[in-house]
From TrEMBL:
<comment type="similarity">
    <text>Belongs to the metallo-beta-lactamase superfamily. Glyoxalase II family.</text>
</comment>
<dbReference type="InterPro" id="IPR036866">
    <property type="entry name" value="RibonucZ/Hydroxyglut_hydro"/>
</dbReference>
<keyword id="KW-0732">Signal</keyword>
<feature type="signal peptide">
    <location>
        <begin position="1"/>
        <end position="28"/>
    </location>
</feature>
<dbReference type="GO" id="GO:0004416">
    <property type="term" value="F:hydroxyacylglutathione hydrolase activity"/>
</dbReference>
<dbReference type="InterPro" id="IPR032282">
    <property type="entry name" value="HAGH_C"/>
</dbReference>
<keyword id="KW-0479">Metal-binding</keyword>
<feature type="domain" description="Metallo-beta-lactamase">
    <location>
        <begin position="77"/>
        <end position="244"/>
    </location>
</feature>
<dbReference type="InterPro" id="IPR035680">
    <property type="entry name" value="Clx_II_MBL"/>
</dbReference>
<keyword id="KW-0378">Hydrolase</keyword>
<dbReference type="GO" id="GO:0046872">
    <property type="term" value="F:metal ion binding"/>
</dbReference>
<dbReference type="Pfam" id="PF16123">
    <property type="entry name" value="HAGH_C"/>
</dbReference>
<dbReference type="GO" id="GO:0019243">
    <property type="term" value="P:methylglyoxal catabolic process to D-lactate via S-lactoyl-glutathione"/>
</dbReference>
<dbReference type="Pfam" id="PF00753">
    <property type="entry name" value="Lactamase_B"/>
</dbReference>
<dbReference type="InterPro" id="IPR001279">
    <property type="entry name" value="Metallo-B-lactamas"/>
</dbReference>
<dbReference type="InterPro" id="IPR017782">
    <property type="entry name" value="Hydroxyacylglutathione_Hdrlase"/>
</dbReference>
<protein>
    <recommendedName>
        <fullName>hydroxyacylglutathione hydrolase</fullName>
        <ecNumber>3.1.2.6</ecNumber>
    </recommendedName>
</protein>
Amino acid sequence: MPQSYVHLYTQHLLLLMLSLIVFKYLNVVPTKTPSEFLWDPAAGRIPPPSTFLTASFLSSGREMACAEVIPVPTLSDNYAYLLIDRKTNTAACVDPAEPEKVVAAAKERGVTLETCLCTHRHFDHSGGNEQIKKLVPGIEVIGSAYEETPGRTKAVTDGDTFRLGKFSDLQVKVLHAPCHTIGHLLYYLESRTDVNAKPIIFTGDTLFLAGCGRFFEGNAQQMHHALMKTIGSLPAETLVYCGHEYTIANLKFAATVEPNNFALQNKLEWAQKQQISGKPTVPSSIGEEKAYNPFMRVDRPEVQKAVGAPEGDEIQTMHILRERKNTFRG
């Protein structure tokens, strides 16, 4: 390396070290590993500020969401959700495995429960559908047309759209994501009138914070399509609400794949504080998941190398990651 490059490299390395100290003081989170921050003489510049995520990125941004979402813990580690449209004071619920809790949450907030969205047929997600029909007469239970869903009153397919209520400006788009079950659905919610409101996606057991669901009725190629194409193509600011509180275990596994991922380390520290405080770790965002979720980073050479997959083989990387996670006991 020419002496001038050595001099410049040293300057930028010192600048990097100083920046990291400042970022630590200001609680700013780098999203790339140290090797990725080093100035590249061929490029002639240091990485841009966009390679950093402020600590506020790790907060949910729920105040800017298109709807109010209330996580309702059920069973041992499941989440049901109460989805509220404050403009009409109506609500929907998602996967109410213990419907009494969801109905109580709706009454507490003074909203009318009109719709139930079911992501897939597994009992810990659909097991409350029949009971909620008894508790809320006339409620519409929406479920997958690709599998038998208990209590379903309306079957939907990939690409279907509907409003949450007759007078609501909230629109739901159905996305089919077969793998965990053959008929698994995602529900993507956005405002029809407020372009600045963050969209929301309910991912059931397809995408978890820092993880993904088991391939019970599918394969790595299907999960790759679900995560990298179907979900990965949505706006980065989309808020992610998943079906289980697996975040800390998932992040610990992710750390075995990318131990130097600063965004991952920061998220794990944050999640552990949430757990101590008795608070949920949902939601995250699609942008966050792309920063630390190994199952949404199978296109990254460092992840492929870490699991011993052939270079550029995203499907095999997905397969190996899932096999390793199946036996992980961290």
